[in-house]
Fold Membrane protein.
Amino acid sequence: MERATQDETALELLVHGVGGTTPEEMLGDPRTVRVSGDETAAVFRRTEDADAERRPDDYRGKPVPEAYVWCNLTSGNGSRALWLLLLPFMVVNLAHWMRPTSRHRKRLVRTYGLLVRLTGLTLTVLLVAAACEVALDLTAWQCAGTPRCTEGRSWLGFLSADASGHGGWWSQPGRRLALAALVPAALTGLLWYLSHRTWSAYESQQPLPHQADPEEETSRTALGRPGFWYGRRLVARLRAAHTAAGFLTVAAAVGAPAARHDRRPGGPGLLDSLGWLLNFTMMLGGVVVVWVVCRRGRSENKLDRRLDTSLVRWLPVSALTQLVLVLLYAGWSRPGWRSVGRLPGDATFGGIALVQGILVLALAGAAYFLFRTSPDSRTAIRGFGGPAVAMLACALGGVMSGGGAQRVADWLDGGGSPGAGGTIDGPPVLLTWQASVIPPLLIVVALLCAWFGIRTLRLKRREMERVGLDYPDEAEREDSERTRRIASKRARATLTDRAPVLVGIISAVTLLLGAGALTGALLTEKVPGKAAQGQPDVVAAAAQTAQALGSWLIGLGFILFVTWGRRAYRDPSARRTIGILWDVGTFWPRAAHPFAPPCYAERAVPDLTWRMAAWTRSTGGRLVLSGHSQGSVLAAAAAWQLRPSVRRRVALLTYGSPLERLYGRWFPAHFGPAALTSLHREVDCWRNLYRATDPIGGPVRLPGECGPQVDRDALKDPLAYGRTEAHPLPAPILGHGEYQADPAFAEERAKLLARLKHSVPPPRPPGAGAPRAQETVTPAPADPPDTAG
């Protein structure tokens, strides 16, 4: 390729935002060609611009537009909508990245990451325990052991026994449990497979190697570290540990009832000894799993390509071997064994809930001390965003597990009511108590929504007075309906800024109600059948109503989850909506939970970094990195990964950007004021556009003199209040979209290109600036990585 001069070549690399788009829409031309990439993510140009570098004279004074399309990383395949069922795992993974900004508190940072990883481990155990509750307790133990429940269910006939306990070979309780255990074991294996497959498909791309530069200013964010976007070693370790935890949970659910039966007076001594031995090995395996989760966090200071091969291979295999031995042990013939009542699930679910509450409180303590080191008034919930989100993840896990168990119990019981005169006893008492707290929680949410609605109406009235001031030339043509629509759009856009209050209050109420449910379940278990004695009829009726309504709501929520996933598989519009959720929620690497949906940025950020580095090196030209919405976050992350010499050739143009409004407030350790200020100083120039009607994008709000240099005053929206010569038809209220239609966009892009034209250094000789695999960057000591051990 003939090298163009720096004055003749300019590139505008466009990165779209949430929801995705097509290269034709981004480039404004129906004829496009893919210049690099594959079916998942690629760079496109207009057909006429494919060889633009060979014709520099045709592009004097204008950039060559290029579009990076990454929407297939999140919403391209309909089956990915089923990732909605992994929502608790994704939410707890977000909590890892929400820690407050910290300085010189390495141990506390590691403790914070450790607590989040342990919370994620409890969610895996909770999910597998819920599957065991459905398959083992409700189906194989209660329903298959009750002749009235198996009537009309031929698929359970070979597991059932008559009233005297006689039946087929599978009718013994231990054998029924061993067979039913294949369901949660298969679920664990499926999660392992999906995690391994999605890592290979999305996150296996290695980032651009760094080059150490002693003159480079120390970055204030970990996003610029060489190993930040390549967490293969940690994900593999966590995947092995969580898979082993799932198999051990299934083994405990099968082995504990058999061992309890063998310990009865007069039981077989050999089986009793074997049961103790298997229980000991399962406890030892659980200790090893916890040790593996605690032992190591993320390695971000270098590109770590190593893999703990022995651990990754043998930990799940050993747990699976223990499960097979337990299944053989439980399947041993025990003619006098009868399945009565329910399996001891109350202790399991109660223990999980108690551990989760303790971990969330400890996480809140760590976040408090981290926030005290570098307090910032803009940080969401004053640093408690991570603990609040972790609490919501635990609540979502409880809702999904409890809802699934309750719906299956109702289905198996037919027209009866489980535990109240039905054919089976139903799920554990704790799940019923957890269902009873759903109505009061929904009341709190409704009150908060009403309060936000009142505040929004008040703000709308104030904005109606300000709309006319923004259009002074059209004041004589005031239209009350037009003013009301503009003011309403502005008022609703501010709801994003109140989200921290909503999340904080809901998390606190959820924690208190969860503690109350756990206490009520413990009291009910200690005094069965007397929970309502001494209570007034009104109180007892209210409690029963809350439990019944909550059980119905929790089941309805679970059904809506599944239904929404199935609809998204068939409906492209619904699939696009769910894809937007993943665009926001799966930006971060899997640092706390390996079964979370895959991180698309571990593919997108290396794509952008390699493209910018290769183009600037081959042409020596100017480059404007133009990002909209979530694309601006990807653009900032890619700019941090560039070598300093390349970063100084890049101008950054962001619009509708959530960099400070969402990421800066919720993820202050990585997008806080210090990090964004360093980005402004390290790129050649940066301009940010936003509107008052935009519910997602906002100003970057850099401190001091940097703020006006980056943020332009809020753009007018709509461009014209009424009908004008330039806008003879009513101008639309654009909100978050179509920033390129505003004349300010072309004006700011031209200014960035003009500044780059005079400031970009001359191109290096061929081969002088090629990225080398052995180049590394000195890590930033200001914000330590989460590396335990």
Remarks:
- The longest strand covers residues 622-628.
- The beta strands are 10-15, 32-37, 42-46, 64-69, 622-628, 650-655, 685-689.
